[in-house]
Model the fold of this input.
Amino acid sequence: MRQQPRLPVPCVVVAALLGLAAATPTPARAATAQEIDLGVDVALERFRSEIKGGEAFVAAAKGVLVFPKVVKAGFGIGGEYGEGALRIRGKTVDYYSTAAASIGFQLGAQVKTVILVFLEQGALDDFRRSSGWELGVDGSVALVTVGVGGSIDTTNIKDPIVGFVFGQKGLMYNLTLEGSKFTRIVRK
Done:
């Protein structure tokens, strides 16, 4: 039996990157700091109003990284991109982008809001010191599902970083953020 020729790894990586470039939605222009902050305000207000205990949860956090609009699109090879802000004690301290690529069956697009809550100072410090932080490599995030009545049971949350993902119709389930990369950006 004759074996099928295999593409060398660099060819596969180049093909994936080309597919990502084609599939990743990029804004016509980058958002300003003011636009990002406004989107973060709206996303946090939605989180606080839709999730019982959300207000206290955010107030107890060492830092909150919010991406109000992460666009994911794909046609076989997919990608996602969004811009957001890291807030400490309610004030924006840095701006970040998030990007991820995926290969597999996928068709279409979706918009989601991603909120990462840093519950431990060490996890926040490690994140801020990195030049590019990748989930699953540099750290992990526990995605939180909301209990009965749309409330957070904070007594069971022991992870240093927890994440929430919202879609158009509320909290999204069965999602992963693994492979997402977060990079500090400069906004004026």
